Amino acid sequence: MRAGDLKVEREFGEGSVDFRGAADRVSLEEAAGFLLAHCQVIRETETVPLLDCTGRVLAEDVSAGFDNPPFDRSPVDGYAVRSADIAQASQENPAVLQVIGEVDAGGWSDDEVGPGQAMRIMTGAPIPRGADCCVYQEQTDYGEERVQVYKPCGPWKNYCFKGEDIKAGTLVLKEGTALTYVETGILAGLGREKVKVYRRTRVAVFASGDELAEPGTELAPGKIYDNNLYFLAARLRELGVEITALERVPDQPEVMAKRLVSACGQADLIITTGGVSVGKKDIMHEALALCKAQRLFWKIRMKPGMPTIGSVLEGTPVVSLSGNPFGALADCELLVRPMLAKAGHNPALNPGSCTAVMPQGFPKASPSRRFLRGVCENGQVRIPEVKKHASGILSSMSGCNCLVDIPAGTEAVEPGGEVRVILL
Ligand SMILES: Nc1nc2c(c(=O)[nH]1)N[C@H]1C(S)=C(S)[C@@H](COP(=O)(O)OP(=O)(O)OC[C@H]3O[C@@H](n4cnc5c(N)ncnc54)[C@H](O)[C@@H]3O)O[C@H]1N2
Ligand code: MOO
User: Fold this and answer.
1) Which residues pair with residue 412 across a beta bridge?
2) Which residues form the signal peptide (predicted)?
């Protein structure tokens, strides 16, 4: 379906039981499962310059085309010698060797070190034929034409073999490896200037709400600046996503429906915020019905982010998050990240978890599962003051690095109680 073809049909309009009637009220895990089942793993690849591969996922096996290092090399500044020549060397009775030349890192010598001879050598320089060890210059008199060696050095000591790091033909990095600065260095060491990676996951983001104003414009009465569009875009970029649309949409279901349909062909996932509850202006129900999206669930048994809608539009999953910024944030972490992990071949995009002690506790009862923002450090989690936890409050999230997962039915978390923590 193209955006222009969209007919405004109100067969699922207000009053229909389909979206606003019996609530699904699924668990978070069920909601995530529904969405993941409709989330496609990205198969398309692209070739990017080496410096752009960090944060991407490798789409090819990378094997070494040559031994690395490509030659035997010295790990010390000193002299390449024959170990047999210095086997008896001591401070009192140094071995005296003829210095036949010098080889520096990046240089090369075809000369062979014969019996009674030494080659001055620098760290990283190729070891010349004939030598089977390198002595530290501190164990010599630093001689230029003749050198006195004061200590023995066994065969193949202070000697780095060709291929010591990577042997030719070794599978060094497997398809599916998440590339960090470390792999960038490894790929550079293999001489790669370009790397085949999976294309980025594409996400379209729409915020709905007539109250929303663009930062930088004047704030008229009744309006608020739009938090969600911006933190979602920033977070998605951090997670390696390519954003295909980023737009505020008025509270008109027809307009939102058109945006959803046009986003479909370009995005792997669509995220909306606002308009998911039961108010007259909660347009997402009608917008999704207008474009005949298949509903997966409405309402998750958790706070914040309870009224989230999950649906599929022409094969593209649509996650409609609560307009309350902390609700949208929690859902982005808990529902969207697993989808990005699946689509983008990168399990590391799933949030981690641990247990931690909560010295302050939390005095309020949690009849349904509750996520609190907090700072988790050294096995302890600290949370903002109790009145700063409302789902409409974003400011107290600054500096937080986790969500505290409080199970449904908890009366209060006692000070010093142990809690499960989702690490962001
Ligand atoms: N009668 C009921 N009212 C509400 C219920 C309910 O069950 N019955 N649920 C409440 C809960 S819980 C939530 S969460 C919200 C969800 O509301 P919506 O997702 O429909 O979102 P809106 O109504 O559009 O907005 C909620 C709130 O967030 C502000 N908002 C919206 N978008 C943004 C944005 N991009 N940036 C910053 N702030 C935004 C909006 O102005 C509202 O204050 O419904 C409750 N009501
Ligand atoms: O579910 Mo809502 O986001 O708690 O306020």
Assistant:
1) none
2) none
User: Closest Cα partner for 229 from 330, 350, 339, 325?
Assistant: 325
Question: Could you confirm whether domain 78-149 is CATH 2.170.190.11?
Answer: yes
**CATH says 352-423 is which class?**
mainly beta
Q: Using a 6 Å cutoff on CB, does residue 327 contact ligand 1?
A: yes
417 C-alpha vs ligand 2 centroid, how far in Å? 25
Residue range(s) occupied by CATH 3.40.980.10 in the chain: 3-43+199-349
Distance 368 CA to ligand 1 centre (A): 18
Chain centroid to CA 385: 31
Mean pLDDT on 88-105: 98
- Give start-end residues of each CATH 2.170.190.11 domain in the chain: 78-149
Ligand 2 centre and the CA of 399: distance in Å? 21
Q: What is the pLDDT of residues 324-366, one digit of tens each?
A: 999 999 999 999 999 999 999 999 999 999 999 999 999 999 9
142 contacts 148 by C-beta, under 8 angstroms: no
Tell me if 325 CB under 6 Å of ligand 1: yes
Query: Does the pLDDT of residue 11 top 50, yes or no?
Result: no
Residue 318 one-letter amino acid: V
Residues in the chain: 424
Residue 196 vs residues 118, 150, 187, 242: alpha-carbon distances, Å = 46, 53, 11, 17
Q: Whose CA is nearest to atom 44 of ligand 1?
A: 277
Expressed in angstroms and rounded, the spacing between residue 246 Cα and the centre of ligand 1 is 20
Q: Which CATH architecture has domain 3-43+199-349?
A: 3-Layer(aba) Sandwich (3.40)
